[in-house]
Amino acid sequence: MSPVDSPVESKAYPGQSGQLPEHQVWRWFAFARRSLGMAGFVLNRVAGLGLVLYLLIHLVVLSQLTRGPQGWDAFITLARSPFFLTLDVILLAGIIGHGLNGLRVALIGNGLLVPWQRRLLVVLAVLGIVLWVIAAVLIYRG
Amino acid sequence: MTHVMDTRNQNRAGLGWLGQAVSGVLLLILLGLHMIAHHFVVKGGLRDYQEVMSYIGNPVIAAIELIFLVVVSYHAMLGLRSVLLDLGLGKSQEKWVTRSVTALGIIMVVYGVWLMSTLLSRV
Amino acid sequence: MWTITLKIARYKPGEARRIDTFQVSIDPERTILDAVEKVWAEQDRTLVFRHACHHASCGSCAMVVNGVEVLPCIKLIKSVTQPDGELMIEPLHNFPVIADLVADMGPFFERMLIVGMPIVGAADPLPKQEAEDFNRFDNCIECGACLSACPVVATDSGYLGPAALAAAYHQLSVSGDSLSKQAWDTLDGEHGLWRCHATFECSAVCPSNVDPAGKIMALRRRMTIERIRQMLGLGSRSK
Q1: Rounded distance, CA C71 to CA C52, Å?
Q2: Are B52 and A142 inside 8 Å of each other by CB?
Q3: What is the span of the domain harbouring residue A42?
Q4: C106-231: what fold?
Q5: What global pTM score does this model have?
Q6: Complex ipTM, two decimals?
């Protein structure tokens, strides 16, 4: 799709398409050698999509509550296993990362604190890592 | 010529962006409360059946959880739509994406309301 | 003198794309463009690349070096590699490639046209007064690096992109002009201002201090404030 008519034959170079290449989804994840903002974008996108999937799974799992104590408590026993706790720690990294970078994008994207966007990212990243480590310790300690 | 600041001419894309930002900030609070209440003040980090039922038996809690569900569903579906729209789809495909995520969001909320009312009937 | 390896992306219409490798002996105080020209002069006369001013004011030589957009005419060899180092040189991303390192800049200028940037056609003599209407005093040298770096442009060819959005900001905020209905609908639509995801990669690679991301956010700020004012019944601040 072009903002003008699509497809557009290049006027200067007949036979060449005037279209930009499209659907290069791998470029969403090409953050090597790029700015911190690009790393934040990749983190937000990956975590966001993961969280949508998690949300759907979480809602389905909650239906176990309708089976009463037998259904739910059996799930809780499973959820306390080291494997599930590790999944929870990974989930938490996604939540904290997406949340704090999202806060940065919400501020910047409405034109607030724009000159300090890089510093804001660094501060929120450090805060996020500290919160995550504390929460991970609490999760594993039960 | 159209003046940029005449909001009668503003399109819905900006409203969607504002909604995403506002719902995101709300979620920092709502999700934070949700995580603390369910995992960080409970012994063992997870509520068993009896603990869940006594928790949601409080009508204020039930209301907050439903508001949380609405906000998180809105934010999630708008975010999913944004990612899909980044793919450079055609106009009719975009319409289908919007309809699909809206439908999924409604299903999620309706399901949540059904689940909450089912559980509350057993409290 | 350093001996460095240049891996250059090659393409001619009708041929498959490939990477050609060249060894170049060059003073590290010279620029990447000097190295590319040396390859053309001494090793491969079929190498096609665009260059003009050699001092970062025309924007025509922009290319991707080691994955990042640069103006090779001002980028010193020693700033991007070391002795026996390697440079991967490609044309700008997200543009059709005419040949080798030359991108078709048509899509760039089509976007500028949408936001009302006047572009003088070839051999259009204009009276002096009219010609002044076509002057655009802005830092942008229209090199295309920002569009190449933008991850949204990579997947959404309908996205207006950083350069046009920054140009629109300039039109509206500096020049005090308005936009046509078509320009406005595109700017404020799903593939305009609101498609940006704040990676700030465009501002990071811009060789000319345009800060397109900053301008996009500034425009968003104005529009969001106006929207909130209208919602609260405080009236518009627009003239």
Answers
A1: 12
A2: no
A3: 34-141
A4: Fumarate Reductase Iron-sulfur Protein; Chain B, domain 2 (1.10.1060)
A5: 0.87
A6: 0.87
